[in-house]
Amino acid sequence: MGPEVVVEVFRNALYVIILLVAAVIVPGLIVGLLVAVFQAATSINEQTLSFLPRLLVTLATMMYLANWIFATLVGFANELYLSIPELIG
After folding, report:
1. Residue 44 to residues 25, 36, 38, 56: CA-CA distances in angstroms?
2. pLDDT in tens, 28-58
3. Can you tell me where the transmembrane regions are (predicted)?
4. With 0-12 CB in 10 A as exposed, 13-18 as middle and 19+ as buried, what is 8?
5. CA–CA separation, 24 vs 64, rounded Å?
6. Which of 35, 38, 75, 79 is the most buried (most CB within 10 A)?
7. Residue 86 — pLDDT band, cuts 50, 70, 90?
């Protein structure tokens, strides 16, 4: 097992992590930005106003994408499991 194989496995793991985290975080960031623009336009300086919409959007996104997230994780684990002979030999 050379360093190229380890780097490739690590690269694939980072790609899956970034993909899954971005899919959950980006909608919350967009809603937070929209609420911040609304607060700036109306001069409302309430810190807790943006928390609930971001929380609800993040939870809804996780519920909506749960099947895809699980399938992606299972696919990565299966790919990793099937590559064990290559990693050992």
Report:
1. 25, 9, 8, 21
2. 999 999 999 998 899 888 878 888 999 999 9
3. 12-39, 51-77
4. middle
5. 10
6. 35
7. confident
CA 74, 80, 84, 86 dihedral sign is positive
Is the full-model pTM beyond 0.85? no
Distances (CA, A) of 41 to 28, 38, 53, 77: 20, 5, 17, 47
Q: Enumerate residues 6+ apart whose C-beta is below 8 A from 65.
A: 23, 24
Residue 67 has pLDDT above 90, yes or no: yes
Tokens of 13: 């793991």
Amino acid at 72: T
